[in-house]
Amino acid sequence: MKNKIKYCEFNIDTACVEVKLTDGTMVSIDCIAVENEYANNMYEVSELDYLIYNEPISYVKLLLSGKMEEYLRESTDYTPLANLR
Q1: Position 60 in a domain
Q2: Which CATH number characterizes residue 35's domain?
Q3: Which of 7, 27, 37, 73 could form a disulfide with 20 if both were Cys (CB 3.0 to 4.6 A apart)?
Q4: Total domain count for the chain?
Q5: What are 41-55's pLDDT values in tens digits?
Q6: Contact indicator for 1, 64 with CB cutoff of 8 Å
Q7: Which residues contact 59 (CB under 8 A, 6 or more apart)?
Q8: Is 76 inside a domain boundary?
């Protein structure tokens, strides 16, 4: 990305991460759409929620770099309920 992130914050009212770039461009990322695209289980949804609330800049960088899927695959550790029996 040519422009760098100047400001980034999650807006709970719209369920979007609002991003302002150094050139003044504003971008709003629909977090529900991102969850629907990338999260395959509740553990991945939880990981995305953590990023949204605590590290929104990391969330945006992962999304814009195309590395969200790789991040979720590497950082989410879970055991399906069927395997616990």
Answers
A1: yes
A2: 3.30.2020
A3: 7
A4: 1
A5: 889 999 999 999 999
A6: yes
A7: 17, 48, 51, 52
A8: no
Has residue 58 been placed in a domain? yes
Specify the pLDDT at position 28: 96
**By residue range, what is the domain housing residue 55?**
5-66
Give first-to-last CA distance, the chain, whole Å.
47
Tokens 């770099």, located at residue: 65
Those residues whose C-beta lies under 8 Å from the C-beta of residue 78, and which sit 6 or more positions away, are 41, 43
Average pLDDT over residues 60-84: 86
Residue 14, SS3?
coil
Q: Domain for residue 74, yes or no?
A: no
- The residue that leads in pLDDT, 1 or 28, is 28
Considering the entire predicted model, what is its pTM? 0.83
As given in the structure block, the two tokens for residue 69 are: 């899927």
